[in-house]
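Bug #77: duplicate submission created two jobs. Keeping one. Sequence:
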Amino acid sequence: MAPLWLSSFWLALLAPIAVADDEFTGNATTYGLASAIGGSCSARMAPYGVNESLFVAMNYDQYYESSSCSRCLSITGDSGTVTAFVADLCYECGYGNLDLNTALWYTVVGGDPRISEISWYFTPCPDEQEKFCWKEGSNAQWFALQVPNSRDGIKAMEINDVEAEVIGVTSFYQVSPSEAIDMENVAVKITSNTGITSEVTLQSSDYNDCPMTDNSTSSTAGTNGGSSTTTIVTDTTGATAHYTAWQAYRRRRAKFF
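Kept job's structure:
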């Protein structure tokens, strides 16, 4: 019988090593969408610190009912490693596979369009400053909100204590409350995929700099000009343990998950 210390030594070697991010291996293809706003997520802007022309269409299984929208990815291909973000949905792509827009294809893979093996994982975006975009046409009776830079993806959202619903496969959450919404005092509560909840009260100036579509002239978004500072309250009760220390750091910096 082996000594106890020796058994413990081998058990330690055989124990699985925990990693912060799961890495996936799959195939990359390419398609011609030039602007992220035309993707399924209907993203109004790229996450801070990420080139707006470098985005992917996520495979259906890992699109997670829009909760992968605007999350950042680190992708490694034949030409190197690049940070991009999720802006679209690829229905026909298998698990682990990504459809890269043209600019991203030439940056991370290169050469003529083909099927090329890649590896990738979800990663924090370079600059996680909070940002909010409301959908054109939002008003006191119908309101839709998007968070373009969620670290872990959004599992649920409440707007003025009303549970919001996702609009189709986009990343907009909508409500039609029985009581009119005060557009200068919108209470939002978001739950991430890891169980982190964040609460914030928004004013119209918090939506500045969100690009709108050509038919958005009737929207009042951003009419106040300038920017405001939002106070965010975060609760990590029940959150995945790995993220608790990180979120405490984010809270000290008044960031939004």
